[in-house]
# Entry
Amino acid sequence: MSVCATAEIEDIIDRYPGRPEYLIFLLQDIQSSFGYISQESMRRVCDRTGVPLTRAYSVATFYQSFRLDPKGEHEIKVCLGTACHLKGGQRLVEDLERRLGVAAGETSGDMRFTLDTVNCLGACAISPVVVMDEEYYPNMTARKLEKQLKALNAADAAQAKEAGNA
Amino acid sequence: MRKESAAPAMAPFRLNAPGDLETLRNKIIESRDPNRPEIVVCHGNGCLASGAPKVAEAFKAALAETGINAKLMPGVKTTGCQGLCSKGPLVQIRPQGYFYERVQPKDALEIVEKSVMAGEPVERLMHKDPETGKPLYTEEEIPFYSLQERLVLRRIGKIDPTDISDAIAEGAYAGLAKALHSMTPEEVVREVEKSGLRGRGGAGFPTGRKWRSALSAIEKKGRPVYVVVNGDEGDPGAFMDGAIMEGDPHSVLEGLILGAYALGAEQGYLYVRAEYPVAIRHLEMAMAQAREYGLLGENILGTGFKFDARINRGAGAFVCGESTALFTSIEGKPGNPRPKYVRSVEEGLWGRPTVLNNVETWANIPLVLGRGGQWYASLGVPHSTGTKVFCLVGKVDNVGLVEVPMGTPMDRIVTDIGGGVSGGKPFKAVQTGGPSGGCLPYSLKDTPVDFDSLTKAGSMMGSGAMIVMDEHDCVVDLGRYFLKFLEEESCGKCLPCRLGLTRMREILDGFSRGEGSEADIADLTSLAEALKDGALCALGGSAPNPVLTTIRYFRDEYLAHVSDHKCPAGVCKHLIVYAIDPEKCTGCGACAKNCPVECVTGEKKEPHVIDAAACLRCGICKETCKFDAIFIE
Ligand SMILES: Cc1cc2nc3c(=O)[nH]c(=O)nc-3n(C[C@H](O)[C@H](O)[C@H](O)COP(=O)(O)O)c2cc1C
Ligand code: SF4
Ligand code: FES
# Structure
């Protein structure tokens, strides 16, 4: 853990009074800064709030939004709310699992992609919905997905090349 | 969301007496020119996802380009969900009220030149009359809107939710000012009782009665008492609470402050689903502005009444919508429900008397106080008063937010307002109440949509999702979907839910593969009954509803799966085969190129065939074919 990450964790911890009821607030803020909750940050949060480590992990594993491992470079979320399910959301998940070689909820070995599912994004009118790196893609199909992935790969490759040249 | 080049924002203005609100409101209205052109761009979730931010940008650029007369400087305003989500991005032009749908950035200049500068309509972007095809100019002319009764939603889509003066101009906080000026807390409770308002979070518990029992609990235990907003909206096909919090956060806040006044609470909590960052942001802004104006915090409206509230973000657990789980989650713990030997109005948050109401319930309170319980009770039907907001989604033309009086027949909502199933066929079924609700067939299309009629039909109101299904949707698959959802969301504390849901899902998994028998349908039913009786909380207790109603109304479809090994809707993967119609196939080879397992073969320009044994049933070929040659057997 780098010095500046440690400083950032301490900054977050200072936002709230050191009481157990703020545990979830703290974990949420840490996750939104780092993308996941590291063991180090968990230990510090526990020190401050006085919550035993085991209890903090029981909270972190109970709630689905908490992640204990780092996220991939790109996050793809497929909506599996009812409207999206009826319009083929599950087929999109299976398609992505096949293309990326990961199961839903997992991150690819090269840390490039994390595939997740969500329940209703409130955009049922344009279902099925896929969110790639925070951008919404309406009325998604397997073919459109393939195009998007290709574009993403091409952009990454171009960037890598540029970095190599520099 | 901000108004560009709007009239100078009202300086924060501390209201020192209830009467000051009306004075402020008049001042805001006077300072505005009713003829000033305004371009109103919907920024509800549906429109945002279909590109509304780019449309708003394009309007700003177009205004700059045309260099319009500075005296009548038009504003670009962004609002919460205007309701007709499937036709977004939506744009309205004031003062004429022209209503445009599917607006693209490239349309902005034309709209500015024609509608804003010359006051003329752009007919090609207007909603068309479903029968005559004629353009409909304004909301009032469009059946989707004219057949609704938008009360809770009255300001949503009109106001900028981040600007309290906009909300005040449209009547926000008038109910609060009235109550603080001329009503005792007891009178407020009585008004809510008189209204007949029932909770909108699912169970339909009478709100007045809940508040009354909190008062008795307070008599026994004393204060503090807490008021809490349930904004967890976990039903995976519902977004009306999110839309209310995003589009008119003040309506929820005003309701909550009124509740606090009625019960003598000093602290409130808003528990909001983490997937709703915009709702959280708008609520935070609304609370900050309300504090500045003296509507929240110390000495509210100069009356000495003191109340404040804070937001708790959910962390992704459906069960936390359940009252006792929600309280333990606010306390910073895992959200496990507890048995309700002691009711949560007596022993809720921090073990204190607590009133928890749903977002829409709270948003109804200002209406009840503003216009009176008696007036409210005259809306809807006797035991379900008022209106209800629904999320109309699925295989229906006008997907969106709909508000109608309680007791409106289902078919009026789905067909007259929703425009029916695309293609004009009758709908197959409507699922109300999400994973806890039921699935009603077309033959019950005239069922009045109110708490008691839905329960009688085996379904329930639930939160207000209304999912329309057509002949391509399979009820076995829908039952599996909800069971899988609940199985994942079950907290695991009690056995009937933890094991029962898994076993029920396994039986349905079997059905979807064509395995099982009529005896299994009977087993499934008795397991469902056991779960209803034995589960600790309503997650497990209501989980069997979708399965029980589909067995009741669509038994033939279950039998087709287990006896004939067929899925009539063509959904269950193991029971369908993709095939190519040689008459239609041109041999273009597109499907063969896209098949992930290369199971489509054929010579160029000759009809192709699919190897059913190798086929994954991923459906990509069907999606790819431009000639509609691929079908499901
Ligand atoms: C598993 C489960 C999930 C629930 N989810 C919600 C929810 O997301 N929003 C909500 O308002 N009520 C939800 N409820 C209902 C609440 O427990 C509670 O009845 C309601 O918030 C009370 O408010 P009301 O009387 O205004 O309806 C849920 C109940 C259960 C059992
Ligand atoms: S019914 Fe299910 S969710 Fe409710 S307490 Fe039991 S296991 Fe938990
Ligand atoms: S179900 Fe996917 S956005 Fe609502």
The interface with chain B takes residues 20-25, 27-28, 49, 51, 55, 58-59, 62-66, 80-83, 85-86, 88, 91, 94-95, 98, 118-127, 129, 136, 138, 141-143 of chain A (CB under 8 Å).
